[in-house]
């Protein structure tokens, strides 16, 4: 059993280049119109198509996505088409009109709950990120549309697996 008080090789690799990696992450979040909630790197809300592109770019760093939460994209159009909002309150949109409604009643996608989940303590960091992100993209593309709670208005909130003490500077 790994000693989780020790920093994983994956997180150590990120920490070794923290300033550079954070700067690239910030550029990617802006480029793909991802809107993190709060001042860290969790719940980066964006549309599904941009999420796939962002995850592919993060894989190159390598930064893993280890969780997805769900947010309803609330606009006058989605309200008329899909009956939005489907969740509770949430932030106004930084990119575009409307706001995001947090869907806490929908199950999160968690890498740790997948069959044979990748282990950041025993895997090469690049391979860990690649495997996490492959599972995440597969879920968004192939499993999410089949979920009983699915609606086209749902947007993923990506949880970037970085050190808990990484604070965004450009918020």
Describe this entry's structure for a reader.
With 171 residues, the chain is of the alpha+beta class. The protein has one domain. The chain contains five helices and six strands. α1 (9-16) packs across α5 and α3 packs antiparallel against α5. The longest helix is centred in the C-terminal third of the chain and has 19 residues, at 125-143. It is globular, with a radius of gyration of 16 Å. The mean pLDDT is 95.
What helical percentage do the residues reach? 25-40%
- Structural class call reads alpha+beta
pLDDT under 50 segments (min length 5)? none
What number of structural domains do the residues give? 1
SSE run: HHEEHEHEEHE
Number of strands: 6
Apparent shape = globular
Strand content: 15-25%
Q: How far from one another are the termini? A: 38 Å
Characteristic terms for this protein:
single chain; 171 residues; alpha+beta; 6-stranded antiparallel beta sheet; 6 strands; 35% helix; 16% strand
């Amino acid at each position: 059993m790994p000693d989780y008080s020790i920093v994983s090789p994956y997180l150590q690799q990120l920490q070794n280049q923290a300033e550079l990696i954070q700067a690239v992450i910030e550029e990617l979040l802006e480029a793909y119109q991802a809107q993190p909630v709060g001042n860290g790197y969790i719940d980066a809300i964006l549309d599904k198509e941009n999420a796939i592109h962002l995850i592919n770019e993060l894989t190159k760093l390598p930064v893993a996505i280890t969780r997805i939460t769900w947010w309803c994209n609330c606009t006058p159009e989605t309200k008329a088409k899909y009956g939005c909002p489907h969740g509770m309150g949430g932030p106004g949109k930084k990119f575009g009109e409307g706001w995001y409604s947090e869907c806490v009643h929908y199950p999160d996608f968690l890498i740790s709950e997948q069959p044979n989940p990748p282990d950041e303590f025993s895997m090469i960091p690049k391979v860990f990120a690649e495997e996490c992100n492959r599972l995440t993209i597969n879920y968004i593309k192939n499993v999410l549309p089949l979920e009983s709670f699915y609606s086209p208005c749902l947007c993923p909130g990506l949880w970037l697996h970085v050190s808990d003490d990484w604070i965004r500077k450009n918020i």
